[in-house]
Each structure stands twice: as structure tokens, then as C-alpha cells.
Design goal:
The chain is an alpha+beta fold. Helices cover 34% and strands 24% of the residues.
Length: 145
Amino acid sequence: TRKYQVQETLRVEKIFDPKEIEHEIETYNPLIPDGQNWKATFMIEYPDVEERRKALARLIGVEDTVWVQVEGCDKVHPIANEDLERANEDKTSSVHFMRFELDENMIARLRDGAGLAMGIDHPEMTVKVDPVSEPVRKSLVADVS
């Protein structure tokens, strides 16, 4: 959750000043879903620096190929990195902020029990989770109900 993400940032960066803590909270608040969408942090992690450099060069544009799909509906691709540009012509970033906008039909179908799938359709990274586990689906439905 965002709460734990902020706490982890404060811990790792050793932030104790109340003004700096407030700044971190303000930074992450836009990532809280507003009832019509899901918001996510997408992190590409390679512990080895050289391996990460090569992977990020191969994965340019990956943030635009992530998707969610409510059963019976079209895939929804994210609006990525609204806060700032995170990629360039040489590489993508290892962190992307994403917003998946859902329409009323999708939300209604989810409330009625429709399945949910997620994936990535990038030439260098193809992933599909279909269906998303029921506990995860229920948690996500609660964010748009």
C-alpha cells in the first residue's frame, strides 16, 4: 500500500523532519485511486547494475504495454508517468507510475464477479496472469466500489 511505501521511503532515506515527511506524503498522495481507476507503481528490478542497464535499454516503451482486462471487455492500458517523463531514447526507467481508467461497465462487471486478467505485451517482456487470484481481484474491486 501507499502507506507502507511512504514508511519504507522514510526509513531507507532516514527522513525525520516533519516538513520532509509531509513532502513525501504529498508526493505519493496522487497515487491513491479515486474510485474510477487503479493506480500502480511498476518497478523493474535487476540487482546487477550492468544487467539492469542492458534490460532497461531493451525495455523502452514497456510502460505502455502493461494492461488490465475485465472479463468481456477490452484491455485497458495505463496512463503512465503523468508526473514527469521517465524514459529517453536510450532506456526506460526502472520505476513507472501508472493509472488504469475503468469505465462504469467494467466496474459493474467486476462487482458482479467478472474475472480480471493482467499482463505485459512488450517484445522483450511478455507476461499474462489470467485470471488474477480471487483475493487480489476482490481487493482491487474494493478500490473501485
